[in-house]
Amino acid sequence: MLKVNRFESLGFTSFFNPDTGFFARVPDKGGKEPFWSPHGPELMDISITNWCDKGCAFCYKASTKHGHHMQLGDYKKIIDQAAEMGTFQVALGGGNPNQHPDFVEILEYTKAKGVVPNYTTNGRGLSDEILATTKRCCGAVAVSAYPPYDETAETIRILSEHSIKTNIHFILDAESVDIAIDWLIAPPKFLEPINAIIFLNYKPSGRKVFEEKLLRHSDRLDEFFSLATSANRKLKVGFDACCVSGVFARTNANTSLVDACDAGRFSMYVSEDLRVHPCSFQGGLAAGDQFDDSNSLLDIWTKSENMDSFRQYFGSDRCGGCSHRSTCMNGCPLFDELVVCGNR
Fold first, then answer.
1. Is the distance from CB of 177 to CB of 218 less than 8 angstroms?
2. Which of 89, 102, 173, 235 could be 116's S-S partner, Cβ–Cβ 3.0 to 4.6 Å?
3. In this structure, what DSSP letter does residue 51 have?
4. Tens digit of pLDDT for each residue in 54-104?
5. How far apart are alpha carbons 243 and 261 in whole angstroms?
6. Rounded to whole angstroms, how far apart are CA atoms 49 and 30?
């Protein structure tokens, strides 16, 4: 059933279909697209654990088997407040979120409060109970795709057998872009069941930073973005906000179908230790705001200097007279090196 949040004083209406994931933010007739939502975020990115047994060198959270879990009671407080603010959905991450000991209850509680849970997994720990609860409660699951892709393929197979809507999160860097191009031209068979492949720009953050892997070092970006936005592409494709500078500047894609970064404008992040940031990638760079009984999520959203600094950046003239500034909104406020428009 379509959920509608009407904000008459702000001049826009948000529509969300929990069953299909369809979302639209529609300004009133003659009005402009809203810059941010003072009522609260439409999406929340929540790290419910920093526990993971893979230990990938490129993990931006540097998650390990020594990582700790968010307390269930704290999570419920977050969801209670998210529901009050009209948040449509949450993206649960980590670590590997489905290995949180209270994961089933986390999914059930989120759905019961009228918020749609989604999560990203490396595929480990997907028990029958978790799969059944996922099917019943979640909008979609994203599978992190890592070479040699055997585990990725097996996870896709398992989720597909349970009729769970599955996306792929593919980290795009100066090396993996070659694989991405190959997949776009001739998708491997194990991708047949997926809904979409989402390309995530490699961030210079985490346990170990590989500067040479930054996407901007590739000489195949025009080829990649052309294939990824082609009307004849063989895979349904999406991008994280850190890729959109390439979409805007290197293609003729319809900009109305691509959003700039919404961190601090329509989304925010809560870590497993209850630190709140506009963006999850700021966690290793700044302390953020502490969520507790004296500092609500709405207080942080509307009063935090950190949140406001992101909004000021997106509304500034950082990129001067660039013709894409109104859609790209000056690129990333944290990592300038992520911008792949060729103008910076």
1. yes
2. 89
3. B
4. 878 777 788 889 999 999 999 999 999 999 999 999 999 999 999 999 999
5. 10
6. 44
